[in-house]
């Protein structure tokens, strides 16, 4: 092992240099495996305007409470993110089931399920151009394909700008005076977007924000180290590392400090060990492990060993594979989502 570590240390600087030199010429979309899917069946009925300083456009969502009207009694907000199929209605139903299982504490929980639309969804449902839309890259925090920014030279809104916008609306004390905690929950594609947003999120005033990330396919490493030692020039390129990130990512010197303070829980199903199907098989993904279970455990262990994220923890969910309801309706998920004082009794 010592010999392997020395070889990796000699190899990494060359890899980082190559990644930096080539990153600018390779678009983000070309770096990420794509798995197109049919147009989504249902569009969220609530339409929110993105705050103008975040970008241009509107986004749909499902919610138990109007974000403008708010709630005088809500103590917690559960923001649940759909997977790659953009089926926010299904994830909203799962969020409602999670809240119902929490009893009285669930009744004091606002459930919000935003929806990230691909261009095929906007076309299929004849939606106006003002709807934010992506090209299967919303999971990566990429700028929207449309609408274009109002200011010349500005970037289109990122999917992370949408998440920031929801946090800001929930943090409005005039609308939600009793809110004490915001929890993001995601599985699969939803876990992918949160595994990156949790690292690079722009801090803002409001209740503490926690993350519960279930069975993500890959992770954003904030350091140039990987658990699996294979030769891969792209290992540290976004979305796997911080080289050539999307325009949303700013203040690189503050990222590690801010990430270290965040409350992040990884939920890992013991049966989510398939290395086939839609699982990312790029060389950058393979430096993180063979399957989702290994990749999540490796990520948590490496960051713990380097004392990078003291509030990051991983929780094993026995007998569950890549199954949204199986893992998000587990007792382990309930314990992570409903913090002490807000947990189900």
Task: Note the topology.
Layout: H1 2-23, H2 28-31, E1 46-49, E2 58-63, E3 76-81, H3 88-101, H4 104-107, E4 109-114, E5 117-118, H5 119-124, E6 133-134, H6 159-170, E7 181-187, H7 189-200, E8 209-214, H8 252-260, E9 263-269, H9 283-286, H10 292-305, E10 312-317, H11 324-328, H12 331-337
Parallel strand pairs: 3-4, 3-7, 5-6, 7-8, 8-9, 9-10
Antiparallel strand pairs: 1-2, 2-4
Query: In which range does the helix fraction lie?
Result: 25-40%
Please identify the top-level CATH class. Alpha Beta
Low-pLDDT stretches: 1-31, 341-345
Looking at the overall shape, the CATH architecture is 3-Layer(aba) Sandwich
- CATH domain fold name: Rossmann fold
Instruction: Please state the average pLDDT score.
Output: 89
Structural class: alpha/beta
**Main sheet, how many strands, which sense, barrel?**
8 strands, mixed
Tally of DSSP helical segments:
12
Distance between the termini: 47 Å
Count of β-strands: 10
Kindly give the count of domains.
Answer: 1
CATH homology-level superfamily: Alpha/Beta hydrolase fold, catalytic domain
What is the radius of gyration computed over CA atoms, rounded to a whole number of angstroms? 19 Å
The strand line-up of the biggest sheet is: 1-2-4-3-7-8-9-10
SSE string, helices as H and strands as E: HHEEEHHEEHEHEHEHEHHEHH
Principal-axes shape call: globular
